[in-house]
């Protein structure tokens, strides 16, 4: 039985994975392998030592897009994803550096 923040973390991880699939993030990204964009685990590893504020940065990158962070292919803006959903996805991505799971 999980309790406290562990339950919230586990629930957030499941919600983030589900949202990444529902919001078609997996069309350009995979968990462990490069596709059009970098693998989610590479993103998690890049930012694993960053403060928790990096999750807000990643959520903004999801919604606003960007270029030059991971090579020449730009990340298109995804404004249809709500701020709350983008933050949930960002937390899930960041959490991939803390676990051994490979949910694709």
From TrEMBL:
Keyword Iron: yes
One of the Pfam families matching this protein, by short name: Cytochrom_C
All residue ranges annotated as the Cytochrome c domain in the record: 11-97
Residue spans crossing the bilayer: none
SUPFAM superfamilies (UniProt xref): Cytochrome c
Keyword Electron transport set for record: yes
Keyword annotations: Electron transport, Heme, Iron, Metal-binding, Transport
InterPro entries named in the record: Cyt_c-like_dom, Cyt_c-like_dom_sf, Cyt_c_ID
Protein name: C-type cytochrome
């Amino acid at each position: 039985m999980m309790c406290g923040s562990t339950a919230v973390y586990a629930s957030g991880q499941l919600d983030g994975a589900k949202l990444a699939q529902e919001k078609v993030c997996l069309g350009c990204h995979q968990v462990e392998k490069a596709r059009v964009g970098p693998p989610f685990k590479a993103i998690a590893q890049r930012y694993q030592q960053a403060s928790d504020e990096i999750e807000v940065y990643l959520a903004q990158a999801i919604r606003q897009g960007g270029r030059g962070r991971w090579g020449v292919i730009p990340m298109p803006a995804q404004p249809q994803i709500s701020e709350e959903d983008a933050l949930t996805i960002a937390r899930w991505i960041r959490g991939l550096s803390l676990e051994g799971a490979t949910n694709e």
